[in-house]
């Protein structure tokens, strides 16, 4: 049997080509570019890559096809989510480029290989050199995420998973301050992530064994025939474990707080926003396209995971004393809320309420969480970011604007009306109730109430407590972080007050080919 | 201006006022006070204009307007008022300027920003108007929840010593109720989708649905919990004494005067018409809670040593009467309940204001720290007496009319509950008159007594840390303790309303009765057609 080159639609592949091409250019710049002006060049290359990918995605709007030999889907969800990832990726890259906040001009270590505490390490701590590998790494990760959410083939999905994960493992270890914590986070993420990839790969093998195919549409047909069910269900379970790990859904969440805390905050922002969107894109595609005809194999499973994730995220979030860890548990709880939307396959008038509401929620959650981590980078003490809750006491006196923006993000995360978080929650809850999953929604509203407590606690500290002596300083952000905060805060308000156009977009995007 | 725009303006004007107040430069922040006063008076004028444009004999909802807001959810920005909502808007219109006047100086010290106080106050006003004027259930829900944020900041930033605790407790209690209601709101939408083919949140369309009794019960409970927490009914009440005691006086007036009325308003507007079968089924239970609340809260009120907590407990007792009137399902009782909502806002608002003025003089909330104040501040004592008598529903004051209507309206259908509730009137006389007597009469003593008429150092019984600090300058200055002109201007409109509505409540009753009758006929349990 001769090898036949697949038929490639280059227009449909353009977003991926642009972003991965930019990443490759970035590597070349890193290797051959002059060191002195590498940083602006790298920033420009990665922004051109991500924004270019976004533009290319927008130009594809309305396209519905399967290309690259059936491995890649181009449809509503496979454009909406990669577009969102590219946009949020560009914003994250802006955060990487912030030079005004840290006295050493960057949040990233100059040379990650130098042992912590060594003489050389101390020298580098005050060195004005900035490290620029993070830009091509992030661009690669964005490319992997975009592919992840659009893959129509389990093997491509796995490749995308690795393309997005490997750069992230590295980026987690690049913090300039508290380097040991950062390196620990990287190792933890790598080990557990590799383990989860193993689960995914094993599940892939079992599903292939059961259906004889790795193409989602063919799996769907084979699943409908009802042969070799045990193998198929086992395989599905393992695939779900691998994906849930990346989406930081409890009970596969244990890495999340440690990694979110240890990683440099801009990287945390990037992971919390973009990785979650990509992983949910893959979950939606696997469940809706691959197993959409066989809903009852996964529905009870996802139902249970959603409940566990909401409760774990909300309850453990209560006990946190570090803002980054608290936001990590918040992201676990939000993953549970997202799953209430995922449950609702086939809800609504045209059967797309579950998909469209999940897409919308991913967008608003990504924006809000990116904004809140970006804001964290402003509150600093002598040793980097002051992320301990007690340090935030009385922040509103010190810097009313910072506190107000943070309060806005927290209210949005708590789902208070007139913020984007409420619109998103309403959308997924409505889809779930339309699908008859009202007990899940009751759990979700109670979990929301519990989670509201820890968001409120930060507001109480910022506004109603006396400022701590020796408190942190609030840095004046440079242009990049200001842009990110302005965009995310505006989106949080606008999508709460006039969400109509974006909801409409999500509804139009709620289609899957396969 | 077309009449239907009055309602929109009543939301937009204070919201814009809030934004302007928040944007004032710090050096000019005293401008927030005249701004807030002006804006709230404009709202009062708009409320009066709305009333003039409203025809009591006309349609149930008037001055309606609707523009699509979130088409994907089927949500309209739909406003309109019936008689019940209208009198609540009038109450807001009256109370907010009074609160602005009462808070004129109170918020300045402590380095807290004055403009923030007035900005939150105006934002709260916009949302309170919205919550009563919304005729779209989703819109109502949005205002219902968003309203928590300004109140939360008012309590948390400007309240008493335990303000953090009180603010969080207030927010969480209300939020839990609100979220349960959110599930029920969505459930209602889904029911409307299956019955009408297209989902809607429009109140009038939803009221036409005939919902399966089992589903009705679940949805009723979802709404009921939210409103019972808000109102609050025993056993959902424990947040109110904390919030009422810790909130700044102006915040407390609006909290019990208006915000809590959203709960009883919600019973009337949403529970009864949307879920008539479930309302009938649950009525005995609700009435039991109402009567238990009347008696239990009255007993607790008698046991309070903190005046603001005492007034908060009296409110819980009064909310029991309102709930009794609503769930008795007669037009008279429902009319009385709505009138009670207005009168309670005026009487308890006045009581909170006077107590606040007393506390501002003495620096302590404890009853035991005061005594014989009447001899030094006769006007203050007189206003206190008027407020107290209105609160215990003495004939001739406004509350008497409404309490009487509730009781005679409820008696035909619910004699046992009504008779039990009547005991609450006696208890009310006790807790009010005891507080009045202890603080205003007798030998001058406590923190406001002059050194030469202080009988013994036993003055601070049950003092709970009576602030000698605050008392010292008061003594030294020997200034007049009586109400000054600003304070008189603040209490005068409320005192006037107490008397006026006690003597001639008919204009309000004319507004309320058609809407109350329509609500009761929705439940369709009016046995002898008492109207």
Distance between the termini of chain A: 26 Å
Chain-averaged pLDDT of chain B = 88
Uncertain segments of chain A of ≥5 residues (pLDDT<50)?
Answer: none
Oligomeric status: heterodimer
Mass-distribution shape of chain B = globular
Q: What's the arrangement of strands in the largest beta sheet of chain A?
A: 4-3-5
H/I helix tally of chain B: 22
Largest interface: A-B, 36 and 36 residues
Reported for the largest beta sheet of chain A, the result is: 3 strands, antiparallel
Which class best fits the helix and strand makeup of chain A?
mainly alpha
Radius of gyration of chain A using CA atoms only: 22 Å
Structural class of chain B: mainly alpha
Query: Roughly how much helix do the residues of chain B carry, as a percent range?
Result: over 70%
Number of extended strands of chain B = 2
Distance between the first and last residues' Cα of chain B:
36 Å
The H-and-E topology of chain B, N to C, reads as HHEEHHHHHHHHHHHHHHHHHHHH
């Amino acid at each position: 049997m001769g090898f036949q080159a697949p038929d490639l639609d280059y227009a449909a592949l353009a977003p991926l080509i642009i972003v991965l091409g930019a990443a490759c250019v970035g590597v070349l710049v890193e290797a051959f570019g002059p060191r002195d002006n590498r940083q602006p060049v790298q920033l420009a290359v990665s922004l051109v890559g991500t924004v270019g990918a976004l533009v290319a995605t927008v130009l594809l709007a309305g396209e519905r096809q399967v290309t690259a030999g059936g491995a890649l889907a181009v449809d509503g969800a496979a454009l909406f989510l990669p577009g969102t990832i590219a946009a949020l990726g560009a914003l994250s890259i802006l955060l990487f480029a912030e030079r005004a906040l840290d006295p050493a001009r960057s949040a990233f270590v100059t040379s990650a290989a130098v042992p912590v505490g060594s003489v050389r390490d101390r020298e580098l701590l005050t060195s004005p050199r900035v490290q620029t590998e993070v830009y091509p790494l992030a661009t690669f990760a964005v490319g992997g995420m975009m592919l992840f959410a659009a893959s129509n083939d389990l093997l491509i999905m796995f490749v995308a998973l690795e393309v997005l994960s490997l750069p992230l493992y590295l980026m987690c270890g690049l913090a300039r301050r508290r380097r040991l914590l950062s390196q620990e986070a990287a190792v933890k993420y790598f080990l557990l992530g590799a383990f989860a990839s193993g689960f995914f790969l094993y599940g892939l093998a079992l599903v292939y064994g059961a259906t004889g195919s790795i193409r989602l549409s063919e799996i769907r047909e084979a699943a409908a025939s009802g042969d070799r069910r045990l193998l198929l269900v086992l395989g599905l379970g393992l695939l779900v474990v691998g994906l849930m790990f990346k989406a930081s859904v409890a009970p596969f969440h244990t890495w999340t707080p440690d990694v979110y805390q240890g990683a440099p905050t801009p990287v945390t922002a990037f992971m919390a926003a973009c990785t979650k969107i990509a992983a949910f894109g893959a979950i939606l595609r696997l469940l809706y396209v691959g197993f959409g005809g066989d809903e009852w194999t996964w529905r009870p499973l996802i139902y249970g995971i959603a409940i566990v994730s909401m409760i774990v995220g909300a309850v453990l979030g209560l006990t946190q004393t570090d803002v980054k860890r608290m936001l990590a548990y918040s992201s676990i709880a939000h993953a549970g809320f997202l799953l209430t939307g995922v449950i609702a396959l086939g809800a609504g008038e045209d059967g797309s309420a579950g998909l469209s509401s999940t897409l919308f929620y991913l967008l608003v959650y990504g924006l809000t969480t990116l904004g809140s981590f970006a804001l964290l980078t402003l509150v600093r003490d002598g040793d980097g970011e002051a992320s301990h809750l007690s340090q935030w006491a009385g922040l509103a006196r010190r810097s009313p604007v910072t506190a107000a923006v943070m309060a806005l993000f927290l209210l949005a995360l708590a789902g208070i009306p007139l913020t984007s978080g409420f619109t998103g929650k309403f959308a997924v809850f409505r889809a779930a109730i339309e699908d008859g999953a009202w007990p899940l929604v009751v759990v979700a509203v109670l979990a929301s109430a519990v989670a509201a407590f820890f968001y409120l606690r930060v507001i109480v500290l910022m506004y109603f407590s006396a400022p701590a002596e020796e408190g942190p300083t609030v840095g004046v952000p440079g242009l990049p972080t200001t842009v990110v905060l302005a965009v995310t805060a505006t989106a949080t308000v606008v999508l709460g007050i006039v969400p109509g156009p974006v909801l409409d977009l999500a509804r139009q995007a709620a289609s899957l080919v396969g | 201006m077309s009449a239907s725009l009055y309602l929109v303006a009543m939301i937009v004007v204070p919201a814009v006022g809030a934004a302007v107040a928040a944007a004032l430069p710090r050096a000019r922040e005293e401008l927030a006070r005249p701004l807030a006063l002006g804006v709230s008076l404009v709202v009062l004028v708009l409320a009066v204009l709305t009333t003039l444009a409203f025809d009591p004999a006309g349609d149930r909802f008037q001055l309606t307007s609707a523009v699509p807001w979130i088409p994907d959810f089927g949500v309209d920005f739909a406003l309109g008022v019936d008689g019940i909502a209208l009198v609540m808007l009038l109450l807001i219109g009256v109370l907010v300027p009074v609160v602005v006047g009462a808070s004129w100086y109170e918020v300045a010290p402590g380095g807290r920003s004055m403009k923030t106080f007035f900005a939150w106050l105006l934002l709260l006003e916009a949302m309170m108007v919205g919550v009563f004027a919304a005729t779209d259930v989703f819109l109502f829900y949005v205002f219902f929840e968003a309203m928590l944020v300004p109140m939360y900041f008012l309590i948390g930033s400007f309240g008493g010593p335990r303000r953090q605790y009180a603010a969080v407790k207030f927010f969480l209690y209300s939020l839990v109720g609100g979220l349960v209601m959110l599930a029920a709101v969505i459930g209602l939408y889904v029911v409307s989708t299956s019955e009408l083919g297209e989902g809607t949140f429009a109140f009038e369309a939803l009221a036409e649905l005939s919902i399966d009794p089992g589903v009705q019960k679940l949805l009723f409970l979802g709404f009921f919990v939210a409103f019972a927490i808000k109102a609050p009914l025993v056993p959902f009440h424990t947040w109110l004494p904390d919030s009422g005691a810790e909130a700044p006086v102006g915040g407390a007036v609006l909290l019990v005067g208006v915000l809590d009325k959203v709960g009883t308003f919600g019973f009337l507007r949403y529970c009864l018409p949307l879920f008539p079968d479930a309302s009938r089924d649950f009525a005995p239970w609700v009435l039991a809670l109402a009567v238990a609340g009347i008696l239990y809260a009255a007993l607790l009120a008698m046991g309070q040593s903190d005046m603001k907590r005492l007034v908060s407990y009296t409110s819980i007792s009064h909310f029991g009467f309102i709930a009794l009137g609503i769930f008795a399902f007669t037009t008279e009782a429902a009319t009385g309940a709505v009138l009670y909502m207005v009168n309670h806002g005026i009487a308890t608002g006045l009581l909170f204001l006077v107590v606040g003025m007393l506390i501002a003089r003495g620096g302590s909330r404890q009853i035991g720290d005061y005594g014989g104040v009447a001899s030094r501040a006769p006007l203050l004592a007189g206003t206190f007496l008027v407020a107290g008598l209105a609160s215990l529903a003495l004939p001739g004051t406004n509350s008497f009319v409404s309490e009487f209507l509730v009781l005679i309206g409820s008696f035909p259908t619910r004699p046992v509950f009504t008779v039990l509730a009547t005991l609450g009137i006696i208890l009310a006389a006790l807790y009010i008159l005891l507080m009045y007597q202890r603080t205003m009469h007798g030998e001058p003593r406590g923190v406001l007594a002059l050194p030469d008429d202080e009988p013994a150092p036993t003055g601070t019984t049950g003092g709970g840390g009576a602030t000698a600090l605050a008392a010292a300058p008061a003594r030294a200055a020997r200034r007049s303790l009586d109400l000054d002109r600003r304070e008189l201007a603040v209490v005068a409109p409320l005192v006037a309303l107490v008397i006026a509505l006690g003597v001639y409540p008919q204009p309000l009753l004319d507004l309320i009765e058609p809407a109350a009758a329509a609500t009761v006929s929705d439940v369709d349990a009016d046995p002898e057609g008492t109207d």
